[in-house]
Every structure is written in structure tokens, then in C-alpha cells.
Amino acid sequence: MILYKADDDLMCKVFAMTLGEAAQDWFCTLPSASIRNFKKLARIFTKEYTSYKMVRKHADHLFNLRKKPNESLRDYLRRFKAEKANIIGCNHQVASLAFKKGLPTEHELYRELAITPSQTLAKVFETAERYALWNNDHIAAKKASKQVDHLIKQASQKSNKFEHKAQDKRISRPQEGGSETETFSEFTIPINQILAQVKDKP
């Protein structure tokens, strides 16, 4: 439209054609013959839609980011990268400092970055990825260890129950040579017929 910028009528009409559905609806609500030139159209359009404008963030914004207590290192790294991507011309040295500042001081990665402070941002992210991978493996190993401990505990409890039952049976059974005699039920039909009758019952 640079070629036709002197033609206000054409500029206004073509601009209106570029609007989306909601903005088209807004444009249609303007009073008839209220726009006399493109400058006025630009002014009222900007006034209507200024609140939708994204505020440009500066590199200083990265210092507000902090790794949350329950957040994994990988999630913090992903969140930091996403925020950095929104900053045009972000200084890499500032980003490196902000990333380290967002880590808890007791974190292993914080100590690593403090020992070697002159790393490039790419190197910082690479080191963080390595730590995130190790962290995930460590968490997975801890979960597996807990599951094994839980299974061993369950097996031990079951074993103890069986031992107690066996002891109870031994205690309730009369000693050899005692006066009490064991009594048994005598079946009048073969055992295989009994099993066939009760096989579907609880």
C-alpha cells in the first residue's frame, strides 16, 4: 500500500478488508461517513485495540523467574527458554546470570554454574539438560526402589501371616499320645463329584 498512501479512500477500504471477524464487526459499528481520512481511522482503531497490545519485555524480566520448589529442572529450563524467546535481542550473558539466579543456592547445578561462571548461554543450557537428565534418572531409580521395598514388605507381611496361621494350627492340634482324637468327615460320594459340584461356587 506504500504506492497508494496518498489515496486515503483506498487506504481505508483496503485496511478494512484485512480485519478479522471481531474487528470487522467493530468496523461495521462505526457511524456512516465518520472516517474522513486514514489518519483518523488509524487513530480510532489504535484507541479501540491498544489494550490487546503485548508489552515488550526486557532482559531484566528474566530475573523474576524462579525455579518452584516442586518444579523439575527440565520444566524450569523449558519455562525459562519460553520467556527468553519472547525477548527480542536478549543479551546472552544477562540470560545466563538470570538462569543461575533462578536456581536454589543449594542445587547442584547452581554450584556448577558458580564454579564456572564464564560459560556461554548455549553451554549453560547444555549443562542444565545434562543435570535434568540425571535428575529424571535419579527420580525414576528412587521410585523403583520404593516399589521394590513395598513389594518386599508385602511379601514379608504375607509370610508372617502364614507363619502365624501354621502356629495356630499346631497349637490347636492335640499332642501325640493325648486323650483327644481327631475326627474326620466321611464322604458318601467320590471326591471328584464333590469338586464338580462346588467348582463355580465362591
Topology:
Layout: H1 8-17, H2 21-28, H3 38-49, H4 73-85, H5 92-101, H6 108-115, H7 121-172, H8 191-198
- The structural class is mainly alpha
Helicity level, as a percent range? 55-70%
Shape: elongated
Helix tally equals 8
Uncertain segments of ≥5 residues (pLDDT<50)?
none
- Reading the helices and strands in chain order gives HHHHHHHH
Radius of gyration: 39 Å
Determine the strand fraction and express it as a percent band.
Answer: under 5%
Mean pLDDT: 81
Q: Major sheet, described briefly?
A: none
How far is it from the N-terminal to the C-terminal residue, by CA? 85 Å
Number of strands: 0
Description:
There is one protein chain. Among the domains are: 2-52; 60-141. The protein is built from eight helices and no strands. With 202 residues, the protein is mainly α. It is elongated and about 115 Å long. The protein has helices at 8-17, 21-28, 38-49, 73-85, 92-101, 108-115, 121-172, 191-198.
